[in-house]
Design goal:
Elements: H1 19-27, H2 30-40, H3 46-53, H4 57-69, E1 73-77, E2 84-88, H5 90-93, H6 96-109
Antiparallel strand pairs: 1-2
Protein name: Transcriptional regulator
Keywords: DNA-binding, Transcription, Transcription regulation
Domain HTH hxlR-type: 18-114
Amino acid sequence: MSRTTKRAPSLDWTDRDCPVARTLDLVGDRWSLLVIRDAMDGARSFTEFQRRTGIARNILTDRLRKLTAHGLLAQRTAPSGRRQEYVLTNAGRDLFPVILTLRQWGERHAFAPGETHSILVDQHGTPVPEMMPTSADGTPLDADTTHVQKTR
């Protein structure tokens, strides 16, 4: 676990030895990833997160509390000085490739051919290229060319 990620004392891990399971324990529900997505897109206030996601107030309160407790979001005083806002931490920003991969999977598999959807573009307006994991020598990797190796 990174030094920036805080673990709540009552968290029971689904599978304490698996990084995927631990990550899903932290952000694996629909609302947590949508809050992270919206924070990446500039949402800062409770009201903005609620408006963008349509999430119920009690669920949003719970997710913001959980994401903050685990070090993915931080609270700070808004520039106006009148309210608190939420900002991504380094650990939260590290989820960018996860959000990007989910988006790209969705573009390929969650829409009918020709169905309109949003696209992610860089600062110049150019669509972000598809992510493809590669080995150290540049060979594309997939489920058939990798395996899990226990570290103990």
